[in-house]
Amino acid sequence: MALLEVNGLKVYFHTRNGVVKAVDDVSFTVDRGETLAIVGESGSGKSVTCYSLLDLLPKPPAKIEGGTALFDGEDLLRCGAKRMRHYRGNDIAVVFQDPMTSLNPYISIGEQLIEPLIYHPDNQRKQSREDARARAIELLVEVGIINPQARFDCYPHEFSGGMRQRVMIAMALINEPRLLICDEPTTALDVTIQAQILELIKKLQQTRDVAVIFISHDLGVVAGIADKVLVMCEGTIREAGDTDAIFYHSQNDYTKKLLNAIPEGAKTLPSRLQADNLLVEVTNLKTHFIDHSKAGRQHKVIKAVDGVSLAIQRGEILGLVGESGSGKSTLGRSILQLAPTTAGQVSFDGNPLTGLDSKQMVPWRRKMQMIFQDPYASLNPRMTVYQTLAEPLLYHGLANSKNIEQQVRQLMDDVGLAHGQMRKYPHEFSGGQRQRIAIGRAIATKPELIIADEPVSALDVTIQAQILDLILDLVERHNLTMLFISHDLSVVRCISDRVMVMNKGVIIEQGDTETLWKNPQQAYTQQLLKAIPIADPRLERSRLSNL
Amino acid sequence: MLRFVFYRLLQAIPVLLIVISLTFMLVHSAPGGPFSADKAVPPEVIKALEAQYNLDQPLWQQYISYLGDVLKGDFGPSFKYPGRDVTELIAAGLPATAELAFYAMLVALVIGVSAGVAAAMRPNTAQDYIPMSAAMIGICMPSFLLGPLLVLVFGIYLEWLPVSGWDDMPGDKILPAITLGTGYAAYIARLSRGGMLEVLSQDYIRTARAKGLSEPLIIAKHALRGGLIPVIAFLGPAFAGLLGGSFVVETIFQIPGLGRFYVQAAFNRDYTMILGTTVFFSTLIIVFNLLSDMLAIWLNPKLRQQTRGES
Question: Cβ A102–B309 below 8 Å, yes or no?
Fold first, then answer.
């Protein structure tokens, strides 16, 4: 008998707008030492499936409408609150997606770690504070936290994202669970840290014979870690099978669509770069911030951008990659004079921008626009699509009251939005549609330069592919020049003509995209490129074994 | 932290100066004076009195000399209680008022926090609606209505508690404390419900559940600290409000507190008394606001370390 056997699970959300079938008739099994990956886009019900096993869903609105989930023969869905406490954190543990919000900011890491031991519902397995502390420190060493004795009493904000996720994993493992549920454990992390965490999970699973349910939307990650794959969409299972079978012999259209949407390989369109037609020139740009939050008498200066020189030719798409904290977003904002620069020069079409006051910047603002990462946060929720798109047109005098509506329609056509949606508000749109609105807003003023800061990072892979196509299409049609910032190297590769790698505020390597990919010179770039998971199980396995 | 406190105290100086100046101007521009009375008093007598208290000097001179006195910690003599200092009168009224405020705060916190937390645990159920409706009534109910009602029920019909007095009979502090505390309890209930709801929807609460912690432990250990931040921020203004707002309750229950002096002083045009109590209350408000901010910082490890780094 399998360790976990889920049969016909149904979870519905009873909302004001009717019933949403979040999980509808889902069945699967997981065995000891086995890794089952559940893949699917946001809203497919993969997290809901796992949370319902431990009764972690908010009820209402969620309600389990049917099915069984036998863990070692006992039905988790009907075992009652008291038995459930026995399973939670003891037999079944969870590593949540976002290590930034999943740890309590008011309680020290160590205290949070030992809680499953000192409050164990089973009195015989309950441990004293001292024993629990010793055990926790052992585990912290195991997950790769340096100097765990001293770090034990630190608070979550003193740890980086990767370190917090290690703490989360240690916390999940402290009672030696038999089933580990990992909900997108590496999505919020940089690729090099992701590689370390995945390796850690894999190692722990092999040494402890734990069963793992691994929720992910990243098929590259899944290819390397999973034994079996479950493809979910809109609450139902579309396909299930061995990892190789799913990747190489998929019978299902949805699975094929997912696999095809993975950004892969080089840019297929020819470069539109116009040689000797410099649009942006940055010389020795520095943007420093003073960090008031750091302890110590002297305020620490953060050198977000520390002496960057670059040139963007007209018509070119220049990719800028780097891990979080590398200064790539600050660089983008500094070029647009949206962040106060400390030193250096930025010139646009031969005209210096540094030193201009906000009034003098106005005519230049029209020519350079930005697309932001989060289409949820960067659109004003109280403005309709029409208002959002009309505002820049009217502000820069590009339209008058007579032709504004027609111009907005034109823009909506450009970014692929139906005219009927003109009076709707951002919350009525999906993530992909919102990003289309944001792109429409950016191209409204007919800019020459667009700085796109992680424009597809918040999107599902199929939507991501559509938006990337849209961006390429608009660059072509409107003769745009683009600085494309992303931490996702595969995305940058498939869209850019040229790439720059940024680390700790400086550009460490740049060059033609394919040349750089095939022959990276710097150790850091090599390490970054090596850490990218490949959405092909055989290649991914050989990549992992070569590390 | 020390530096934070120092800067906040520095900011208090201009605030107090503005308070003193405004109050000074307002009381002096109000019609009548401390020696206008129903009976006809010979003008020579009034002249002599005004000369004694320096009221015959130009206003700006009075203002300057008052500021000088305040700096020395001297609020001057009372106009209505001859021979007694304002400082002395405040000191006489303060203990009763402070004690009343303390008990009222206790009532407000115990009732308010427990009702708010209970409501947040089961939002949109009877456990939420009943305490929250009660809180709404509590906010709307003025103390001059609630006080007599409580006296009527518990003092006169049931004869459980004394109807008035202070420190005379056992239990005579209960009704005033409840009367004064109810409005604040209601407010705290709403604040703690909001704060707790916010915290209970956080990811880290889900983490705590997934660890197998019991629900009471999750509330007490993981949720309360973050959930009560809004309440803590409110404590400073609330305490000051309790001290200053106690005069109605003091009047209803015949409590010899500061609030009654304050109101009487306003009616009597007892200039120094009004000014003295205003400055005193303003200082209290500033101090309590500072204390509640310090508490909020101390409860948040991130802020705690930042301010520790600064000092």
Answer: no
- DSSP, collapsed to helix, strand or coil, labels residue B94 as helix
Contact A104 B212 (CB under 8 A): no
pLDDT tens, position by position, A9-56:
898 888 887 888 888 889 999 988 889 999 988 878 888 899 998 888
A235 and A90 in a single domain? The answer is yes
- The CA distance from A170 to A526, in Å, is 30
Amino acid identity, position B287: V
Q: Are A521 and A468 within one domain? A: yes
**Of A227, A260, A293, which closes a domain?**
A260
A217 and A365 inside one domain:
no
- CB contacts of A117 in chain B (<8 Å) are none
Angle, CA of B38, B42 and B46, to the nearest 5°: 85
In this structure, are residues B296 and B233 in contact, taking their beta carbons and an 8 Å threshold? yes
Question: Looking at the partner chain, which of A85, A87, A158 has a beta carbon nearest the beta carbon of B214?
Answer: A85
CATH code for position B226: 1.10.3720.10
**If we measure between CA atoms, which residue out of B125, B218, B140, B153 comes closest to residue B182?**
B140
Q: Which pLDDT score, from 0 to 100, does residue B164 have?
A: 76
b/e burial code for range A333-371 (CB count within 10 A of at least 16 → b): bbbbbebebbebebbbbeeebeeeeeeeeeebbbebbbb
A214-247 pLDDT per residue, tens = 998 888 888 888 889 999 988 888 888 888 888 8
Could you tell me which chain B residue has the CA closest to the CA of A82?
A: B214
Domain count of the fold of chain A: 2
* B58 within domain boundaries: no
Q: How many domains is chain B partitioned into structurally?
A: 1
Domain boundary among the residues A260, A289, A318 is at A260
Contact assignment for B206 to A96 by CB distance below 8 Å: yes
Domain that holds residue A372: 278-546
Q: Under DSSP, is residue A359 helix (H, G, I), strand (E, B) or coil?
A: helix
Question: Does the predicted interface ipTM exceed a cut of 0.85?
Answer: no
CATH number of the domain encompassing residue A29? 3.40.50.300
Residue A483 reports pLDDT greater than 90? yes
Does residue A254 share a domain with residue A282? no
Q: What is the pLDDT of residues A350-405, one digit of tens each?
A: 888 888 888 888 888 888 999 887 777 788 888 999 999 999 888 888 888 888 88
Predicted TM-score (pTM) of this structure:
0.76
Q: Using CA atoms, how far apart are residues A202 and A225, in angstroms rounded to an integer? A: 7
